[in-house]
Amino acid sequence: MSQAFDAGDMLRIAMPKGRIFEEAVELFRQAGYPLPAEFDDSRKLIVEAPQANMVFILAKPADVPTYVEYGTADVGVVGKDVLLEEERDVYELLDLNISHCHLAIAALPDWQPVMYPKVATKFPRLASQYFREKGQQVEIIKLNGSIELAPIVGLADRIVDIVSTGRTLRENGLVELEKMMDITSRLIANRVSYRMKNTQIEELIRRLERVVKGEGVR
Ligand SMILES: Nc1ncnc2c1ncn2[C@@H]1O[C@H](COP(=O)(O)OP(=O)(O)OP(=O)(O)O)[C@@H](O)[C@H]1O
Ligand SMILES: O=P(O)(O)OC[C@H]1O[C@H](OP(=O)(O)OP(=O)(O)O)[C@H](O)[C@@H]1O
């Protein structure tokens, strides 16, 4: 493997680009880790925060558990939805209580029960497991985004997708049929890093936990 990425003794943190990013950066700052202004407006994918002794790997949300499982990152921040879908071998350390949303089943208001409903989703594993546990046979259609489109254009009878404000469902004329689970973002760790960098990681958990609980740092 290439040695191009040498983080020294800095803690390597996989951060999801996208909507979790800002909240997670704010959380780390509140926890007393000085993150450079570069974070707020940059296209760089590796950002060092020397004063915090951290280096951040900015990845696609769905790839964060992969970087952590393979030990390219020591810890990572990821939505519980992605964590369950990816089924990576990592430790889940802390509920960060950010990026609140829920996973739901939705459809057009005039939906009809059919024998083998087609279900479009970005979360094929989670959706399959959910319907299997309910004893319902469905056909899962994996999509990569704009899931709400599927019932409108006739690709699927139902969708399994993230709902936050409900605006996307509303504006596309869909209704929520069933809430599947609440989702927040989690701190995860590589199993070996958790042992080898235990002091650093435990300190990170302790500081983040205090912010999450609203107790402030120290
Ligand atoms: N509308 C939302 N409101 C709040 N949190 C959300 C919302 N949608 C998704 N999330 C949470 O944020 C995480 C990242 O979502 P985001 O939309 O940034 O990425 P994505 O759409 O999964 O990735 P990509 O940009 O690669 O398509 C999700 O895994 C989920 O936990
Ligand atoms: O309830 P709301 O507040 O409207 O948020 C829900 C929407 O947000 C997410 O989509 P995202 O913006 O990530 O786009 P995507 O369809 O490309 O995944 C999710 O997949 C819903 O479409």
From TrEMBL:
TM segment ranges: none
The reaction(s) this protein catalyses: 1-(5-phospho-beta-D-ribosyl)-ATP + diphosphate = 5-phospho-alpha-D-ribose 1-diphosphate + ATP
InterPro entries to which the protein is assigned, alphabetical: ATP_PRibTrfase_cat (IPR013820), ATP_PRibTrfase_CS (IPR018198), ATP_PRibTrfase_HisG (IPR001348), ATP_PRibTrfase_HisG_short (IPR024893)
Primary localization class, coarse: cytoplasm
Gene3D superfamilies per UniProt: Periplasmic binding protein-like II (3.40.190.10)
Pfam family, any one: HisG
Family membership: Belongs to the ATP phosphoribosyltransferase family. Short subfamily.
Protein's name according to its UniProt entry: ATP phosphoribosyltransferase
Organism in which the protein naturally occurs: Caldalkalibacillus uzonensis
